[in-house]
Amino acid sequence: MRRIYRHPHFWARGTIQLGLATLLRPQAQLSAGIDSLTIRGRFPHARCMSFTTYTGQTQAIDGINDVHVVPATGSIADNPFIADHARNTDGAVRDYVVTVVKRQKPATPAPNTVYLTDANGTHSNLFSFLVIYRTYRPDKAFPNDGGGGGSCTTTS
To answer: Is CATH 1.10.287 the right assignment for the domain spanning 4-155?
Structure first.
């Protein structure tokens, strides 16, 4: 049976401010029965953004950064982080969907996907979704997260 859990305040656990960088961490560890985590957000108005998964010992497993995230529109032209693309767009063209999956990273990873086991199998976290959303240098008119963030859906 497929169950879907919605977490509209997934990032509510807290913001960590480190100089010009802002890190958002999950509200809670998620059940081991969850197979994937889908994060729906909006590209922040900031210098850069990324999602990184970690082991329980805080070793990085996998990650995806801003220029590699395909916008929800499917058009890479809507990604404001790619050189010469419109940076000050607003609304739905800034939306993205990133999925965190409880699998080993394949040689050719799926677009907008972050894995809980690295490609060579040496680092993994199959018991929780420890993922950090990071923004750096938000534009002055926006909050510390650059107006990004978002909600998530988990599937088991």
So the answer is: no
What pLDDT was estimated at residue 149?
61
The closest of 28, 8, 41, 2 to 153, measured between CA atoms, is 8
pTM over 0.85: no
- Count CA atoms within 13 Å of residue 123 on its CB side: 16
Residue where the block lists tokens 């990085």 = 60
The residue among 48, 33, 51 whose CA lies nearest residue 82 is 48
In the chain, where are the structural domains located?
4-155
Q: Distance between CA 46 and CA 44 in Å, rounded?
A: 5
Tell me: pLDDT of 8 over 50. no
Tens of pLDDT, residue by residue over 22-33, are 555 554 455 556
